Amino acid sequence: SAGTMTEPPPPNRAGRASALWRRLAQAHPGFGNPARFFGADQISDSRWVIFTVTTTGAEFIEQLSKLTNSEPGLGGLVTLKDSSWLLTLTIFHQPEVIGQPSGTYLWWGYSLYPERTGDFIKKPMNACTGAEILEETLRHLRFDQLLDRVMADSICVPCDLPYVNNIWLPRRSTDRPPVVPQGATNLGLIGQYVELPREIAFTIEYSARGAWEAIRLLLKRGPAPPPVYQGQDDPKALLATLRVFLGL
Ligand SMILES: Cc1cc2nc3c(=O)[nH]c(=O)nc-3n(C[C@H](O)[C@H](O)[C@H](O)COP(=O)(O)OP(=O)(O)OC[C@H]3O[C@@H](n4cnc5c(N)ncnc54)[C@H](O)[C@@H]3O)c2cc1C
After folding, report:
1. ipTM reported for the complex, 2 dp
2. How far is the CA of 114 from the centre of ligand 1 (A)?
3. Are residues 140 and 106 both part of a single domain?
4. Whose CA is nearest to atom 34 of ligand 1?
5. 183 and 125 fall within a common domain
6. Most buried one in 45, 111, 166, 194, CB count within 10 A?
């Protein structure tokens, strides 16, 4: 659910898609264990709050580029590792979206521990307005002198995602159903919660591969998807990783 500059995100309603999965799993074995991912007790481990900032002033992006010594779109994610919420910021290459007017800038951030109390705004992030999240971010960056200008020039829209990280929660191999559950002849399951051995979830590739598999298995048509790339067996990737670890 999304909030505004002056309102925190409203509480989320239970999702219809997970309710459908629960109904299927209750009625048939082999449809996995949705409670492992969508149980109410999982939320504190799976919640993120993300926020998108649209600003008509260049000062924030200029200051951050100076601080990180990287142009918008060229630096990596910037994690404020001492922030209780564990804030991370991304400064996109501008313009980021089609039709973005010149002189308008867009950046984005997220937090992995939004239920913790903020360091400057003494509330959990999921209870914060966009303005409060922006202020917490600016104060962590020690951009206090920019605060009034950035606040006046910016719209920060927070969005509460209570389940987003559940894809990565510890699980058993039977917690996610296969693309075609045993015995099914006219039903394929797609998306991030099907079991695709060795593939990495939370990616577009994961959903594309699942859909490809579903078509191939149910319609018995078309080639199999290519084998899943295994970076740990790729000498080039291993060398590149080593370079990063050694700071070369
Ligand atoms: C913050 C964030 C950052 C990400 N970053 C990356 C990244 O950098 N790289 C990457 O590869 N992946 C990334 N992902 C993951 C990627 O976005 C998803 O894995 C991917 O979009 C899932 O695709 P999908 O088609 O399975 O589902 P979705 O994109 O969720 O599409 C499902 C669609 O079904 C619709 N729908 C739901 N219920 C119904 C209904 N009852 N009737 C009709 N329609 C319905 C929804 O509205 C939606 O449009 C990110 C995800 C998030 C949240």
Report:
1. 0.95
2. 21
3. yes
4. 17
5. no
6. 111
